[in-house]
């Protein structure tokens, strides 16, 4: 049993009710909750002085805090975590929310990228937060690879997949690369790549380079390394992450503080870090909630992230969808929205494949 679970189980009914009502009141309004407000809503008739004593005890336990000089209390991060883990009542998905998500994704035309872009727009619109969508790696078999020189220090690597999908990215070729060495590198890769997915190619390519060192010159070897690294490194990460609805967060600036929102915007620009974090969701199924500093990416902005992985037809986790906003999120409503969206995305991608 975690410390929070034990703490919750040791509370008497009155203390638990005061705690639950303070947190729920704060999540609903964003304002501190005072003892007089609570005495009007408690299930048993108690005095304001009694409620104040209970609130003081909860503050001593580190679950509530007093902002500024207000007589009311708000939950601390530890308090929010305990509420989410032990007292949160997750609602049924509201019909209107379901319809808005279904309508957005019902236009099942275009490529997966277009679908996931619409998913992000739907999530941010329904939740009024910012949405994060981690797209799956493109796992169709490779048909053709080509290197195209653009300038002395820039080249394009083009991947054509068997399903007709084409990806191209700019990269910095090794010093001295020539059209001839680029052709040699492409020929070497094409001989190995046909019929393999990008992931499969990545696991065999370097072994083949070592085994056939005499067949390919140093420049072509370096080209192969630097060209494929674009997909395995930052390039792919930036391509895979879709962020929508940043402007929704500005509405929170009055209560959350403009500097916090600015910090969050800066965090959202560092897409590679967010991708690495979202890939952690591949360790387990279901919706996960990260509050404040539990999520090191957004700790400075005091934000929460509700995220769920989605799976393909083989029940393999291939991406994630999530919503980020202030810690004062309506968790009971947003959890089922994120859960439903993740399941729907998995089904749509499975149907396409």
Describe the structure.
- There is one protein chain.
- The chain has 353 residues and is of the alpha+beta class.
- It has three domains: 3-86, Arc Repressor Mutant, subunit A (Orthogonal Bundle); 95-129 and 245-352, GAF domain (Beta-Lactamase, 2-Layer Sandwich), CATH 3.30.450.40; 142-237, Enolase-like, domain 1.
- The protein is 52% helix and 17% strand.
- The protein has 16 helices and ten strands.
- The protein has helices at residues 3-10, 13-29, 35-39, 48-60, 77-86, 95-106, 112-127, 179-193, 198-211, 218-232, 234-240, 246-250, 253-256, 258-269, 271-278, 331-352; strands at residues 64-65, 74-75, 130-134, 142-151, 154-161, 166-171, 241-244, 288-291, 303-311, 317-326.
- The chain has a five-stranded antiparallel β-sheet with strand order 7-3-10-9-8, sandwiched between helices. Strands 4-5-6 form a three-stranded antiparallel β-sheet. Strands 1-2 form a two-stranded antiparallel sheet.
- Helix 2 packs across helix 4, helix 10 (218-232) runs parallel beside helix 11 and helix 11 packs across helix 15.
- The longest helix has 22 residues, at 331-352.
- It is elongated and about 85 Å long.
- The model has no long low-confidence stretch (mean pLDDT 80).
- GO terms for molecular function: DNA binding.
- This is Heat-inducible transcription repressor HrcA.
- Keywords: Repressor, Stress response, Transcription, Transcription regulation.
């Amino acid at each position: 049993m975690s410390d929070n679970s034990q703490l919750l189980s040791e509370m008497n009914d009155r203390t638990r009710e005061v705690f639950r009502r303070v947190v729920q009141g704060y999540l609903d309004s964003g304002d501190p909750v005072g003892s007089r407000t609570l005495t009007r809503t408690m299930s048993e008739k108690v005095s304001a002085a009694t409620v104040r004593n209970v609130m003081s005890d909860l503050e001593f336990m580190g679950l509530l805090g007093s902002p500024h000089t207000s007589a009311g209390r708000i939950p601390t991060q530890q308090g929010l975590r305990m509420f989410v883990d032990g007292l949160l009542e997750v609602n049924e998905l509201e019909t209107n929310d379901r319809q808005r998500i279904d309508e957005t994704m019902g236009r099942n035309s275009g490529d997966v990228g277009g679908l996931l872009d619409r998913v992000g727009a739907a999530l941010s619109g329904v939740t009024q937060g910012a949405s994060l969508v981690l797209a799956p790696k493109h796992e169709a078999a490779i048909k053709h690879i080509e290197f195209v020189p653009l300038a002395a220090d820039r080249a394009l690597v083009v991947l054509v997949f068997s399903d007709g999908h084409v990806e191209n990215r700019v990269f910095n070729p090794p010093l001295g690369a020539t059209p001839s060495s680029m052709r040699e590198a492409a020929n070497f890769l094409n001989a190995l790549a046909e019929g393999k997915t990008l992931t499969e190619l990545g696991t065999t390519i370097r072994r083949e380079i070592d085994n056939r060192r005499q067949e390919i010159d140093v420049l072509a070897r370096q080209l192969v390394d630097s060209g494929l690294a674009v997909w395995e490194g930052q390039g792919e990460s930036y391509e895979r992450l879709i962020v929508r609805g940043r402007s929704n967060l500005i509405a929170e600036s009055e209560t959350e503080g403009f500097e916090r929102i600015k910090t969050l915007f800066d965090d959202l620009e560092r897409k590679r870090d967010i991708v690495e974090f979202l890939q952690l969701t591949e360790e387990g199924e279901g919706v996960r909630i990260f509050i404040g500093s539990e999520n090191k990416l957004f700790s400075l902005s005091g934000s929460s992230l509700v995220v769920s992985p989605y799976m393909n037809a083989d029940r393999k986790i291939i991406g994630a969808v999530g919503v980020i906003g202030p810690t004062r999120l309506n968790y009971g409503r947003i959890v089922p929205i994120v859960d439903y969206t993740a399941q729907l995305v998995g089904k749509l991608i499975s149907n396409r494949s």
